[in-house]
Amino acid sequence: MKNNTDPTQQPIGIFDSGVGGLSVLRAICDLLPDEAVVYVADQAHIPYGPRQQSQIRDFSFGITDFLLAQGARLIVVACNTASAAALHDLRARYPNVPFVGMEPALKPAASVTKAGRVGVLATPTTFSGDLYHTLVDRFGKGITIFQNTCPGLVEAIEHGEVGSPGTRAILTEAMVPMLDGGVDTIVLGCTHYPFVIPLIQEITGPEVVTIDPAPAIARQTQRLLEERGWLNCDKQKNELQFFTSGDEKTLEVLLPRLLGKSSCCQNAIKISGLIWQGHQLVATCARQGTNQV
Ligand code: DGL
Q: Residue 199 is inside which H or E element, if any?
């Protein structure tokens, strides 16, 4: 993949601190099933949420260098926290690379809410970033916004606990104040959270709308590729290559649980390890062959 200079044949790069970006990958596979993808999960450093922005920025630079070395032609920062900390600097540092970033979906929420009350769930770094404050200034006028972090939720999802009593307790604690405040719309401002949408909806009941931004991110990815004439029109199932700086075995077990029956699962899948050497990510030998999840 990496020596091919035809951009239609080069992969899309996607990264997150862990498995959260799989919620975005799932939407991209559904919309663009012919695209090859290289996915980096920086599980050695998870969670990103409570970390300093400068540190997350350094991780994002290292991961981007690695993805570009794998031939990535476009990079999806499938992490709200990394987008908040690094998207601006990534675009400045790699001016020829198209980036798709995440932001809490306040714009759609503002048009969906009838009560004028919106809840946002995200990590501390996402809430403290300029990106979030700009969104609140632009789309929060006339709307009451309730925001909350969900301490421990990212870690629970990384352990595959998408329906456990502990995960329910974390979500209940985070959402009860916003539900008591009368929200009718909840924005998922962290890419891990879509994996607990069934639990969220059990807690909110059917009247509250939950906004998962992943389909919009997939459409934006398609738009950027189309604009450049970079869409792969080969109509063949392409390879998904996963790299983790954490434990490959754990990722191997989690992938089928989180990706479920999405169209990603029809592709050939490889999982390999990564190690950080200073600010650089280096691939370890692939410990697994091609898998089907
Ligand atoms: N999935 C990430 C996000 O969208 C980050 C979770 C974390 O590592 O704290 O914010």
A: helix 197-204
The residue whose two tokens read 């790299």 is 243
Supply the DSSP string of 43-57, one letter for each residue: GGG---TTS-HHHHH
Tell me how far apart the alpha carbons of residues 280 and 273 are, in angstroms, rounded to a whole number.
14
What is the span of the domain harbouring residue 272? 11-102+215-288
Atom of ligand 1 nearest to the CA of 78: 4
Q: Are residues 93 and 222 in the same domain?
A: yes
Please check whether residues 208 and 128 belong to one and the same domain: yes
Where is average pLDDT lowest: 37-41, 81-85, 147-151, 264-268? Answer: 264-268
How far is ligand 1, taken at its centre, from the CA of residue 49, in Å? 6
Peptide bond into 151 cis (omega under 30): no
Report the CATH number at residue 68: 3.40.50.1860
90 and 135, same domain (yes or no) = no
pTM for the complete prediction? 0.94
Percent with pLDDT over 90 in the chain:
85
pLDDT tens digits, 220-274: 999 999 999 999 877 666 789 999 999 999 999 999 889 887 777 666 789 999 9
Position 211, amino acid: I
Last residue of a domain, one of 158, 180, 212: 212
Q: Which residues are catalytic?
A: 79, 190
Ligand 1 centroid distance, CA of 125 (Å): 9
Q: In the listed set 212, 242, 272, which residue is the last one of a domain according to the structure?
A: 212
Each residue's pLDDT tens digit, 168-194: 999 999 999 999 999 999 999 999 999
Domain count, the chain: 2
Say which residue the tokens 């949420």 belong to. 49
Residues touching ligand 1 (Cβ under 6 Å) are: 16-17, 20, 46-49, 79-81, 123, 126, 154, 190-192
Are residues 93 and 228 located together in one domain of the fold? yes
Assess if residue 18 is contained within a domain: yes
